[in-house]
Every structure is written in C-alpha cells, then in structure tokens.
Amino acid sequence: MRVFQIQKGEILIINGDKQYSDTVENFKLDSELTLKDLNEVIYDNYQECCVVNKEFKEYPNTEFEGYIDNVDTYIKAKEKREYVPPEEPTEEEKALAKINEIMAANDEQIADIKDAMLVAVLTDDTELQSELKKEYASVIEDTNNKLQEVKAND
Q1: 40-62 mean pLDDT
Q2: Which one of 19, 37, 71, 81 has the fewest beta carbons within 10 angstroms of its own beta carbon?
Q3: Predicted pLDDT at 130
C-alpha cells in the first residue's frame, strides 16, 4: 500500500511496511519541505485517488509519489529529532558500577583459586595449598583496598 495523507493537521505516509506519521509542522522539519497550500490530501494507490483540498486531481501524482518514495528519509529525520540522549549516571551509580566491576573480578579470581585448591587438596600438594592461601589473602586484601578507594572517592 502507498499512501500520502494530510488530515486535521496530521500527516501519514505509508510505503509498503514503512510508515511515517506526525504533525504537519514536524513533517516540515523532517522533510525540509514547505507544503504550500496543502491543508488536506488523500492520495493512495489502493483507491487510485488523489484529492487535494477537497478537489479531485489526476492520479498518479509524481509529487505525492516522491513523498512516499522518501519515507525512509522522513523516518530517520524523525528519529534523530526525537532522540533523547541517556542521562549521565549519578556519582552513586558510577560508584556502584565500579564496585560491581571490582567484585566481578574478585569472584573470578577466587573461583580460579578454589579450583586450584581443590586439585592441591586432592593431590596432597601442601606447598601449593600454602601458596594458594597466600594468593587468596592477597586477592581479598587487594579487593578490599579497591573498594575502600571507591568509597573514599564517593
């Protein structure tokens, strides 16, 4: 279906599965067109009709066909016009994200140490067990220092 329609200050353009609808004023912004003297338009290929300001005009109409062909341009312009950038995270949110990052790294390191410790216990490797206990303590201390740093900057 191909439609170009202006009614009650609203515009509708359909080209197959693509659709643009908005106010006429916003369409003028998105299309950079003036639409002089177009208060009401009903143009569609299903009914093969072209009615402009309540007067029947010749169908097909190259001007309206061109508007329909450019629906992608209007959709992109509307998306750009309506885009609202995400809000900058608060200091609290930034701190929480940093804490989550630190804890994720900690959890990964601890999981590796636990896996290695299991092998050390099963193989009765007391030297490796001792090293892993020291490494575990070092990871915990490092994590706590990093968390304190985040807290101090908060």
Answers
A1: 95
A2: 37
A3: 95
Cβ distance 11 to 21 under 8 Å? Answer: yes
CB count in 10 Å sphere of residue 133: 13
**Among 35, 34, 29, CA closest to 80:** 29
Instruction: With both helix axes pointing from N to C terminus, report the angle between 126-153 and 91-122 in degrees, rounded to the nearest 10.
Output: 180
Q: Which two tokens stand for residue 42?
A: 């009903």
- Asked if 77 and 67 touch (Cβ cutoff 8 Å), the reply is no
The answer to whether 13 and 67 are in contact (CB under 8 A) is yes
Q: What is the pLDDT of residues 128-149, one digit of tens each?
A: 999 999 999 999 999 999 999 8
Token pair recorded at residue 60: 């097909």
Greatest alpha-carbon span in the chain: 96
Backbone φ and ψ of 38, nearest 5°: -110, 100
> Can you say how many angstroms the Cα of residue 122 is from the centroid of all Cα atoms in its chain?
50
Integer Cα distance of 34 and 100 in angstroms: 53
Q: Per residue in 69-120, pLDDT tens?
A: 999 999 999 999 999 998 999 888 988 999 999 999 999 999 999 999 999 9
- Residue reference for tokens 């001792």: 130
Distance separating alpha carbons of residues 29 and 3, to the nearest angstrom? 20
